[in-house]
Amino acid sequence: MTRTALAAALAVTALAAAGCSSASEPKAQSEPKAQSEPKPAAKPSRTAPACPEDGVVIKGLPVNAAMGTRAMGITLTNCGIHPYKINGYPGVRVLDEHRKPLDVKIAHGSDIVDDVGPEPLTLEPGEHATAVLMWRNRVTDVTGGAVNGAYLALTPAEDGGRPQTVRELVDLGSTGKLGVTAWHREGPKPRR
User: By C-alpha distance, which of 81, 74, 76 is closest to 53?
Assistant: First the structure.
């Protein structure tokens, strides 16, 4: 069985090589066209979504989970060409698998990390700020069921902005609570 598969693979390779050598001139002429046509189309598709019109991108970092406690960093990057001002907390909504908002209480800070509160920041192009989302996967009420979000809708400010959706399991258990720190140039430090 392996010899048959090896012979078939060698035959396909030989036929492909023969096809390439028998028509080498026409393929050589058509290859530069095939290579030059996709390049212009590929550049806009890679750069267009990288920086939206408002000039900021919010991304989620990997979740750090230990003993039922979760912490997830988020970054806001100024990908635009002008300075971008922020002051305060990111807007956060926890969404289900159909992207519908869940009933989750969002609080400033938590007992997991220190939140020193808002500070006015001006991000120059290319600079970023960081905030941390914190929650506990704790079930204290078995009658209501656990709250599990599938997405986060994040905005640069609590009072609005264009929501940017991040796919992330937010397993709140029955607590229904999520804490968030203010934006800072460096992330907050864990409590000791």
Answer: 81
- From 76, 62, 96, select the one nearest 162 (Cα to Cα): 76
* Tokens found for residue 35: 């290579």
Burial class of 8 by CB neighbour count within 10 A (0 to 12, 13 to 18, 19+): exposed
Identify the H or E element spanning 78.
strand 69-78
Report the predicted TM-score, pTM, of the whole model to 2 decimal places.
Answer: 0.68
CA–CA distance, 107 with 117 (Å, rounded to integer): 12
Q: How does pLDDT run across 22-59, given as a tens digit for each residue?
A: 344 444 444 444 444 443 333 333 233 479 888 999 99
User: Tokens representing 137?
Assistant: 């996967």
Structure tokens at 147: 């709250």
Cβ atoms < 10 Å from Cβ of 13: 10
Name the residue type at position 141: D
